[in-house]
């Protein structure tokens, strides 16, 4: 009965059944404009955020692979709440696999309510599992629903196909001048035959997706708030890691220069990445990207510097990630804090839910 009621709510947003003592109602309609205690928010050709206190560092909390579903939902939301209390971020970025079940609407509403209770804006990139099991939503509709939530910063182009939610968020000083950019990209789900063959992959195995060439061209424009401006210092967020995460970790391990964490996945090279290189890493180097933050690999959490770009697996969030059955790895559950100074410099550290482990400086 509970699942049936949730399915009806998924379709209608409101359900009232009289005579049997059951009342299920939708949450209040989203407010016009986004609400934040810490930020001023303007939307022009991108999203422009500025701190209410001049000169403060901008704190971003990356969460990833929350895998919210009916079972364990209350505990997972409590874990996110605890991370928000500990991190006190200005903005939260979830890098994919946010809700992974058949009925997603109520989970997204409840997730948004956690952020609303803290007065914190949040945004997300799609993972390969988002909407994969959903009964009534595809990937585009998933993000369109998120865009209606009163604390979620998401843009979905009406004519977008295949990839959704690519956008820049510009961090600005007190005068409104951008000094840093956060670039969000949809890394897709599973590699199409056409894209694979374009870049030399002819296998028949189902493999993970890659960022499209046209996305890379858009990325090159996103790092400039206008056509005449130079590329801003910036970081990128997406779900599926690039092939360079394999090379970067191997080189850092050999040289003893791993900045943080470990590589634990039982995959060739230890990383669940696409078998093709579509050019995203080369573009990131060209554009001066400071760091790339991904999710996807639940038991990888390493950070390495590779060819001038910091490659970072986000700390996996919530007990609903598949690593949680391993007690040792469950202790690694948490998030990743990225602090951006007005100078454009960044500091990165992991934050762990297990209190006696504390913070891990990286």
From TrEMBL:
Residues 58-299 form the Calcineurin-like phosphoesterase domain. GO terms for cellular component: cytoplasm. InterPro entries: Calcineurin-like_PHP, Metallo-depent_PP-like. SUPFAM superfamilies: Metallo-dependent phosphatases. GO terms for molecular function: hydrolase activity, acting on ester bonds. It holds the Pfam family Metallophos. This is Metallophosphoesterase. It comes from Candidatus Stercoripulliclostridium merdipullorum.
